[in-house]
Amino acid sequence: MREMFGRIAPRYDFVTHTFSYGMDRRWKRYGVAKAALPANAVVLDLASGTGDFSHLVMQRLPQARAIGVDLTEAMLRVARARGLSHGACADATRLPFADGSFDCVFIGYGLRNFPSLESALCEIERVTRPGGLLVTLDFFLPANRIFRRLYLGYLYAQGALWGTLLHGRPRTYTYIPDSLRSFVSIEEFSAALGRMGYAILDTRAYLFGGIGLHWAIKR
Predict the structure, then answer these.
(1) Alpha helices in the chain (DSSP H)
(2) Could you read off the pLDDT of 58-69 as tens digits, one per residue?
(3) In terms of Cα–Cα distance, which of 72, 125, 122, 64 is closest to 100?
(4) What gap in Å lies between CA 65 and CA 57, rounded to an integer?
(5) At residue 20, what are phi and psi to the nearest 5 degrees?
(6) What is the rounded CA–CA span in Å between residue 86 and residue 75?
(7) Distances from the Cα of 188 to the Cα of 21, 46, 151, 191, 209, angstroms
């Protein structure tokens, strides 16, 4: 996984925006805006990739502090080039931070890639202060089985196309539907957050449940 993300890091933003026809930028901006963070918030951008959430937080709140964490150093290099000043390579299930370190944790398209979703959520809950927020944006399995098959087929076709055009490897971006096949629906993820000590503040479903945006507060 680390090797694959290191290879695609220079093209990651292009592919992410292309898969969503540019809509993911709007979704991420909405995720940050609705979080309504204090001006001096300390936030964790987990599975940060190239630092989209960090960048949006710092644009909106110049006095805030954003720390990016990713499994891949190549992704963090791109994030630093975009202005990320604090970044570290780490596993989401073993974060190098004290309990209650963050006012908010943002995760963009990282949930499916955690080796254990439950273990990662426990660790995220640990480093979030009481009353702190979790904001996630990710792919999910649509509840409707017919649309689910169409959606996975679309993602596979898009992944094969751009993998071939950008890297000469059709399987480069088919990890997205591959990881999604064994993932959960928006509703199932909401239930998992409840079991981990969070209260759901709001959710937004896009693409008939294929994309979900969650806001949750640590009890």
Answers:
(1) 2-8, 12-19, 23-35, 52-60, 73-81, 117-127, 145-167, 175-180, 186-195
(2) 999 999 999 999
(3) 125
(4) 8
(5) -100, 10
(6) 13
(7) 26, 21, 18, 5, 12
Q: d(Cα 162, Cα 166) in Å, to the nearest integer?
A: 6
Picking from 193, 34, 49, 28, the residue whose alpha carbon sits closest to that of residue 125 is: 193
Q: Which residues of the chain have pLDDT under 50?
A: none
* Residue 104 · residue 87 · CB < 8 Å: no
Task: Give the closest residue to 133 by CA, choosing from 90, 103, 159, 107.
Answer: 103
* Alpha carbon 103 to chain centroid, angstroms: 17
Per the prediction, the chain carries an average pLDDT of: 92
Interacting residues of 150 by C-beta distance below 8 A, sequence separation 6+ = none
- Cβ atoms 105, 126 nearer than 8 A: no
Cα atoms found within 13 Å of the Cα of residue 91, Cβ hemisphere only:
8
Helix (H, G, I), strand (E, B) or coil at 169: coil
